[in-house]
Amino acid sequence: MENELSIRQYRSADHKHVLQLHVEPMDDVDAFVEGDDKLDADLEDIELAYLDRGGDFLVGEINGQIAAMGAYKPPSEYFTQFLGDLPEKTAEITRMRVASESQGQGFGEKIYDELEHRARDDGFETLILDTTHRQKAAQGLYEKKDFREIKRQDVEFDDDRFTMIFYKKVL
């Protein structure tokens, strides 16, 4: 069926397309931060950063083309820097993206739903994530999925100031 999203686990052959999808939707809302390779180091080796660490990385395809993605993994030090100690069975939801031409069709919600299902099956009991104040659609999705905002933090990166919003959900 046309415009049907098929969700599956990331494969190494997807790498180039995942990198492209990582940038485009973020640029569209002026939320992409360039200049620090550490911010995207997890995307250099997705298998190592996600699959080998007890997480998952999903892609959604439409007619064989990757149109959406998302992942979860044990929390990075970044979260403990801002949030302090986290419950032991916590997963970080990250890399949620939907291609610009595919937005508004519920694909982000479908990716999220599958991530939550898999995280729960993997034994995680709490989900955390962050987004920026510029990403209104993401905020709406997370709030619709019963995440609650737990902190806002103003940050500056390469002369760009923005507000990070941290969310949490107990499964």
UniProtKB/TrEMBL annotation:
Alphabetically ordered keywords of this record: Ribonucleoprotein, Ribosomal protein, Transferase
Keyword Ribosomal protein tagged: yes
GO cellular component: ribosome
The N-acetyltransferase domain, residue ranges: 5-169
One MF annotation (Gene Ontology) recorded for this entry: N-acetyltransferase activity
InterPro entries tied to this protein: Acyl_CoA_acyltransferase, GNAT_dom, NAT_camello-type
A Pfam family that the UniProt record links to this protein: Acetyltransf_1
Listed name of the protein: Ribosomal protein S18 acetylase RimI
Organism expressing this protein natively: Natronoarchaeum philippinense
